[in-house]
Amino acid sequence: MKWRATWIGCFIVLAAAARVPAQVTVGNDVSMNMNGQISAGYTGDYGNQIPSDHGLTAGGNATLNGSFYDPNFLSFQVSPYFNQSRDNSTSSSISDSSGVLANASLFSGSNYPGSISYSRTYDSLGTFDVPGLPNYTTHGNSNGFNVGWGVNVPDLPHVSLNYAQGTNDYSIYGTDANGSSDYHNFNAHAMYQIDGFNLNGGYVYNLTHAQYPLILQTQQLENLDNDGSSYSFGASRNLPLHGSFSANFNRSDFTSDFSDGRYTGTVDTFSSSVNFHPEAQLTLGADFNYTDNLLGTLYQNIISAGGILQQSTPGQSSNSWDASGLASYNLTKHWIFYGTFEHRDQSYFGSAYGSNALTGSVNYWNRLLGGSFSTALSVTRTTEDTSNLSTVGLLSVVNYSRRIALWDVSASGNYFQNTQTLLVGYTTSGWGYSGQLGRKIGPVHWNANAGESQSLLNVSSGYGYNAQNYGTGFNVRWFGFNGTYSKSSGTGLLGVNGVITPPLSGGTTPLPTDLILYGGHAYGGGIGINPYKRLTITFSYARAFSDTVSNSIGSQNNSENVFGRVQYQYRQMFFTGGYSRFIQGFSASGTAPAQLNSFYVGVQRWFNFF
Length: 610
Description:
By secondary structure, the protein is mostly beta strands. Helices cover 4% and strands 70% of the residues. It has a 28-stranded antiparallel beta barrel. A hairpin with a 7-residue loop joins strand 6 and strand 7. The chain is globular, with a radius of gyration of 29 Å.
């Protein structure tokens, strides 16, 4: 009876169309306006991981905007929502979701602007990634808080301060595993101009903790704590001959604690550059870079991406410096020529390396056969000091697009071979292409696209990836269709948010040992129907499969999504009906795949409350 009375009350409110003021003023200083929508309907849910239920339900969302005294003094926005996240309702989601988003701006019209924001979400959705495939779905609760302040007094340094923190607790559909994470971040930056110099400095502190299941390996939990801070200082100024100079220094301290070990590092980097334009067509420049911890730079990239280092390098020191010179000349508006020379000196894992690289490049653009054509070709000859071994690297890019009668055609391709990575002695090779085709056939608009990319670190390392994607679609008057297919395979690291692609700038020695071999494919499609102005019907289907192997432990993973929805608008009311089906499973979890089904019929009403 309680739910019936609630539903009847909501329906009466939805049907009402009383006019209200467009804005409310409280006293002489506070002004506000508010809009949103309320919904009521009948819903049912059933599956193997939730109890079956059905009944009347109500939900809604609203946005309150306002200001105090003056919008430049204090302005605010609050957006609460309740039961507004059903796959068969207004949001593409599997479960109900409720929460609030709020933010305020203070003194935005002064030299001391500030801001505060807060968010909290219950039963929100997240993702667990496999590169090149649709994301697998997680759900849980999260919240975040952020406060920032600035000091922008004329003739004094401009300073900005920001602090943020948040938490996230989640579970992965298709497993009995839970995860959590929290973070704290503080950063301060300052900028100042004096005697033609632009000076800047900053400090950043990050603290994160994560506990997540290794669902593609075992059901054990992995704990990860990352703690890091960085200091930076930079200066730049203009020079004669339309030139400029810049120099930057950065020190980063980071610690990564995980279940099986600990990695601590400090990285100091210095970089500088100078450029001149003595003539409009001519550019000359030089760059210098130095780091006292080359391996720390590589490991820091992995840690910041959410990966874990299962090995440490106690007692190992590494450093690197490189210097380069550049010259470019615009021969015509279609031809640009580049030339560079670079020298590197590196030391890592007890050995010293050096190399010299000479590069010549040409860029060309022009109208061709009624279309637009552009290409770039770069050839690099690299000689290693220790072995006196020379290699030739190649990088090429081609793009073309034009309209041929009723056809719209565009294509691009790239190829690179023996392209030097961050480490001397390691190179990457690969290729890629993409193409789009479309035309109008009578009342039908049709299009298709295809693309593929591949990259490999050295020829025999085995580290790399391949990704393919294809799609097509058409629409005719009130009917539309699209279909997609994707495929990917390669090596990755298991991190907080799924599988990540390791940086290809490392070699077989410094890369982590717990690599995951992954491969999979996915396909899907959807239709949209709009036979009448106020009637909309949509349906979509998606299916994904992947296989992962790590440390001789394999997992077969799959997901399936079916979603259908019908909506009819009458004035400010929307009559809605829908159905969703969701399946997701991981064989390594040892549990049955999750299966969730839901349906919904109801009505929504938009309001401009005041």
